[in-house]
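ok so I'm stuck.
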Amino acid sequence: MGIGLDRAFELFAVAVSFGFLHIDHGEELRVDKPLHLERFTS
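replied:
not stuck anymore, here's the structure
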């Protein structure tokens, strides 16, 4: 069971906008590789 690519990008953008995800700008964002999420602790 999965979701479409468009929906995945939409959810990713919303999560970043609301601060649920933080982007590591030290790494290149690639659409040809899997997206790995890591727990962020401040």
